[in-house]
Amino acid sequence: MDITGKKIAIMLDEQYQELEVWYPYYRFLEAGGHVEFIAPQAGKTYMSKLGYPCVSTNSVDTVSGEDFDAVVIPGGWCPDFMRRDERMIRFMQQCVSADIVLAAICHGGWMLCCTDALRGKRATSFVAIKHDIINAGATWVDEQCVVDGKLITARQPDDLPAFCKAIIEGLA
Question: 96: which of 63, 76, 103, 111 lies 20 to 30 Å off by Cα?
Fold first, then answer.
Protein backbone atom coordinates (compact mmCIF):
# COMPACT_ATOMS: atom_id res chain seq x y z
CA MET A 1 0.00 0.00 0.00
CA ASP A 2 1.06 3.53 -0.73
CA ILE A 3 1.11 6.18 2.00
CA THR A 4 2.81 8.89 -0.03
CA GLY A 5 2.15 12.29 1.50
CA LYS A 6 1.40 10.87 4.95
CA LYS A 7 3.44 12.27 7.83
CA ILE A 8 4.28 9.92 10.69
CA ALA A 9 5.82 10.81 14.06
CA ILE A 10 7.83 8.19 15.91
CA MET A 11 8.27 9.22 19.52
CA LEU A 12 11.77 8.79 20.88
CA ASP A 13 13.66 8.85 24.15
CA GLU A 14 16.44 6.96 25.92
CA GLN A 15 16.35 3.16 26.13
CA TYR A 16 14.02 2.60 23.18
CA GLN A 17 13.50 -0.92 21.79
CA GLU A 18 15.50 -1.08 18.55
CA LEU A 19 13.12 -3.08 16.40
CA GLU A 20 10.09 -1.08 17.50
CA VAL A 21 11.69 2.12 16.17
CA TRP A 22 13.65 1.00 13.11
CA TYR A 23 11.28 -1.61 11.66
CA PRO A 24 8.36 0.88 11.40
CA TYR A 25 10.69 3.66 10.25
CA TYR A 26 11.96 1.73 7.24
CA ARG A 27 8.59 0.12 6.50
CA PHE A 28 6.87 3.51 6.33
CA LEU A 29 9.65 4.95 4.14
CA GLU A 30 9.25 1.98 1.76
CA ALA A 31 5.53 2.72 1.54
CA GLY A 32 6.18 6.37 0.67
CA GLY A 33 5.56 7.97 4.06
CA HIS A 34 7.48 10.86 5.59
CA VAL A 35 8.78 9.91 9.06
CA GLU A 36 10.10 12.17 11.82
CA PHE A 37 11.57 11.27 15.21
CA ILE A 38 9.98 13.42 17.93
CA ALA A 39 11.91 13.71 21.20
CA PRO A 40 12.54 16.12 24.07
CA GLN A 41 15.50 17.64 22.16
CA ALA A 42 16.08 18.07 18.41
CA GLY A 43 19.31 16.72 17.00
CA LYS A 44 20.17 14.76 20.12
CA THR A 45 21.37 11.17 19.89
CA TYR A 46 19.16 8.84 21.91
CA MET A 47 20.50 5.38 22.70
CA SER A 48 18.48 2.17 22.52
CA LYS A 49 18.43 -0.51 25.20
CA LEU A 50 21.36 -2.15 23.41
CA GLY A 51 23.19 1.09 22.65
CA TYR A 52 22.02 1.65 19.05
CA PRO A 53 21.87 5.41 18.33
CA CYS A 54 18.98 7.37 16.85
CA VAL A 55 19.13 11.12 16.23
CA SER A 56 15.89 13.00 16.83
CA THR A 57 14.44 15.02 13.98
CA ASN A 58 12.40 17.49 16.02
CA SER A 59 12.00 18.72 19.54
CA VAL A 60 8.54 18.10 20.93
CA ASP A 61 8.43 21.87 21.51
CA THR A 62 8.42 22.62 17.77
CA VAL A 63 5.63 20.30 16.59
CA SER A 64 1.97 19.71 17.24
CA GLY A 65 -0.10 16.53 17.05
CA GLU A 66 -2.13 17.96 14.19
CA ASP A 67 1.07 18.19 12.10
CA PHE A 68 0.94 14.41 11.64
CA ASP A 69 -1.31 11.71 10.21
CA ALA A 70 -0.07 9.10 12.70
CA VAL A 71 2.06 8.76 15.80
CA VAL A 72 3.96 5.60 16.76
CA ILE A 73 5.03 4.98 20.34
CA PRO A 74 7.72 2.30 20.63
CA GLY A 75 8.44 0.26 23.70
CA GLY A 76 11.56 -0.50 25.61
CA TRP A 77 12.05 1.81 28.56
CA CYS A 78 11.64 5.03 26.55
CA PRO A 79 7.92 5.37 27.36
CA ASP A 80 8.86 5.52 31.04
CA PHE A 81 11.22 8.42 30.29
CA MET A 82 8.70 10.11 27.97
CA ARG A 83 5.87 10.05 30.50
CA ARG A 84 8.06 11.96 32.97
CA ASP A 85 8.17 14.90 30.56
CA GLU A 86 5.00 16.99 30.53
CA ARG A 87 5.87 18.27 27.03
CA MET A 88 5.83 14.71 25.67
CA ILE A 89 2.48 14.06 27.38
CA ARG A 90 1.09 17.31 25.98
CA PHE A 91 2.18 16.28 22.45
CA MET A 92 0.54 12.88 22.93
CA GLN A 93 -2.71 14.54 24.03
CA GLN A 94 -2.52 16.80 20.96
CA CYS A 95 -2.27 13.67 18.81
CA VAL A 96 -5.35 12.23 20.52
CA SER A 97 -7.28 15.50 20.06
CA ALA A 98 -6.23 15.71 16.39
CA ASP A 99 -7.91 12.34 15.78
CA ILE A 100 -4.89 10.86 14.00
CA VAL A 101 -3.79 7.21 13.97
CA LEU A 102 -2.44 6.38 17.44
CA ALA A 103 -0.14 3.35 17.41
CA ALA A 104 1.60 1.89 20.47
CA ILE A 105 3.59 -1.31 20.82
CA CYS A 106 4.85 -3.10 23.91
CA HIS A 107 5.40 -0.56 26.74
CA GLY A 108 4.39 2.29 24.37
CA GLY A 109 0.89 2.01 25.83
CA TRP A 110 2.19 3.84 28.90
CA MET A 111 2.03 7.08 26.92
CA LEU A 112 -1.57 6.38 25.96
CA CYS A 113 -2.33 5.90 29.66
CA CYS A 114 -1.32 9.55 30.14
CA THR A 115 -4.26 10.59 27.93
CA ASP A 116 -7.90 9.60 27.56
CA ALA A 117 -7.17 7.64 24.34
CA LEU A 118 -7.81 4.21 25.87
CA ARG A 119 -11.13 4.93 27.54
CA GLY A 120 -13.79 2.57 26.14
CA LYS A 121 -11.40 0.98 23.62
CA ARG A 122 -9.99 -2.51 23.07
CA ALA A 123 -6.20 -2.62 23.29
CA THR A 124 -3.21 -4.83 23.90
CA SER A 125 0.32 -4.30 25.20
CA PHE A 126 3.20 -6.16 26.74
CA VAL A 127 1.61 -8.15 29.56
CA ALA A 128 3.60 -6.27 32.24
CA ILE A 129 1.51 -3.13 31.67
CA LYS A 130 -1.82 -4.92 31.23
CA HIS A 131 -3.26 -3.41 34.41
CA ASP A 132 -2.09 0.10 33.47
CA ILE A 133 -4.02 -0.25 30.20
CA ILE A 134 -7.10 -1.55 32.04
CA ASN A 135 -6.90 1.23 34.64
CA ALA A 136 -6.77 3.77 31.80
CA GLY A 137 -10.19 2.51 30.70
CA ALA A 138 -9.46 -0.05 27.99
CA THR A 139 -10.50 -3.65 27.65
CA TRP A 140 -7.16 -5.43 27.47
CA VAL A 141 -6.89 -8.45 25.16
CA ASP A 142 -3.99 -10.78 24.45
CA GLU A 143 -3.90 -10.49 20.65
CA GLN A 144 -1.06 -9.84 18.21
CA CYS A 145 -2.46 -6.53 16.99
CA VAL A 146 -5.67 -4.78 18.01
CA VAL A 147 -7.34 -2.12 15.89
CA ASP A 148 -10.13 -0.10 17.49
CA GLY A 149 -10.93 2.82 15.22
CA LYS A 150 -7.74 4.85 14.88
CA LEU A 151 -6.14 3.17 17.91
CA ILE A 152 -3.66 0.42 16.95
CA THR A 153 -1.80 -1.57 19.60
CA ALA A 154 0.54 -4.55 19.63
CA ARG A 155 2.32 -6.61 22.28
CA GLN A 156 5.97 -7.09 21.30
CA PRO A 157 8.55 -7.05 18.47
CA ASP A 158 7.23 -10.34 17.04
CA ASP A 159 3.98 -8.48 16.29
CA LEU A 160 5.65 -5.79 14.15
CA PRO A 161 4.55 -7.16 10.74
CA ALA A 162 0.86 -7.07 11.73
CA PHE A 163 1.31 -3.77 13.61
CA CYS A 164 2.93 -1.95 10.69
CA LYS A 165 0.45 -3.40 8.20
CA ALA A 166 -2.45 -2.13 10.34
CA ILE A 167 -0.88 1.34 10.59
CA ILE A 168 -0.37 1.54 6.83
CA GLU A 169 -3.95 0.38 6.24
CA GLY A 170 -5.13 3.03 8.72
CA LEU A 171 -3.27 5.69 6.75
CA ALA A 172 -4.27 4.56 3.25
Answer: 76
Q: Catalytic site residue 145? A: no
Put residue 54 in one of left, alpha, beta given phi > 0 → left and psi -120 to 50 → alpha.
beta
For residue 1, pLDDT beyond 90: no
Domain count, the chain: 1
CA–CA distance, 85 with 82 (Å, rounded to integer): 5
pLDDT digits 0-9 by tens, 8-48: 999 999 999 999 999 999 999 999 999 999 999 999 999 99
Q: Name the catalytic one among 54, 78, 95, 106.
A: 106
φ/ψ of 153, rounded to 5, equals -130, 150
Specify if 116 maps to a domain.
yes
Q: Give the domain CATH number at 130.
A: 3.40.50.880
CA distances from 84 to 12, 94, 97 (A): 13, 17, 20
- Phi, psi of 171, rounded to the nearest 5 degrees: -95, -20
